[in-house]
C-alpha cells in the first residue's frame, strides 16, 4: 500500500488497485494469452544465499499473479510475467505493453513509472 500526503489530504493506493489496473491493461493487449502466477526468479532466489538477497532488497508493495510493483525514491518499478500467443511478433507486443502500462499507471495515479520489465515466460498455441 502506498500513502501520499499533500495539502489536499491523504491518498492511499491499495495492492488490489495496482493489480487490477496493471493486470487489466496487460490482458487487454493483443496477443496476450494470460499472466503467469509464478516467475523464474523464484527458482533463482532459492539458490542464492540470504545475505545477498537482503543486500539488494527493495520495498515491494505488490507481487501477485505475474505483477510485481516496487516503490523506491518516489518512482514505480513494474515487473510483468506474461504468456503470448504463438505466431505474434513478441517485440511489438512487449513494446505495446510497456507503453500502455506506463501511460495507465501515470494517468491514474500521478506517479512516475521509471521502468516496466516484461518477461515472456511462455508461448502458447
What does this structure look like?
With 125 residues, the chain is of the alpha+beta class. The protein has one domain: Alpha-Beta Plaits, CATH 3.30.70.1350. Helix content is 37%, strand content 39%. It contains four helices and seven strands; from the N terminus they run ββαβααβββαβ. It has helices at residues 15-27, 41-47, 50-55, 90-109, and strands at 2-6, 9-13, 32-35, 60-64, 67-72, 75-85, 112-124. Strands 3, 4, 5, 6 and 7 form a five-stranded mixed beta sheet that branches. The chain has a two-stranded antiparallel sheet with strand order 1-2. The termini are far apart. The relative contact order is 0.20. Residues 42-62 have low confidence and may be disordered.
Topology readout:
Blueprint (H helix, E strand, L loop, with lengths): L1 E5 L2 E5 L1 H13 L4 E4 L5 H7 L2 H6 L4 E5 L2 E6 L2 E11 L4 H20 L2 E13 L1
Parallel strand pairs: 6-7
Antiparallel strand pairs: 1-2, 3-6, 4-5, 5-6
Helix pairs in contact: 1-4
Amino acid at each position: 500500500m502506498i500513502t501520499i500526503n499533500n495539502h489536499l489530504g491523504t491518498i492511499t493506493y491499495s495492492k488490489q488497485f495496482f493489480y487490477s489496473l496493471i493486470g487489466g491493461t496487460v490482458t487487454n493487449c493483443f496477443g496476450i494469452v494470460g499472466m503467469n502466477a509464478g516467475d523464474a526468479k523464484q527458482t533463482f532466489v532459492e539458490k542464492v544465499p540470504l545475505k545477498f538477497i537482503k543486500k539488494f532488497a527493495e520495498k515491494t508493495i505488490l507481487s501477485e499473479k505475474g505483477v510485481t510493483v516496487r516503490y523506491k525514491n518516489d518512482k514505480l518499478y513494474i515487473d510483468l510475467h506474461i504468456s503470448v500467443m504463438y505466431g505474434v511478433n513478441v517485440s511489438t507486443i512487449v513494446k505495446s505493453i510497456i507503453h500502455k502500462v506506463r501511460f495507465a499507471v501515470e494517468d491514474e495515479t500521478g506517479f512516475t513509472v521509471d521502468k516496466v520489465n516484461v518477461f515472456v515466460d511462455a508461448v502458447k498455441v
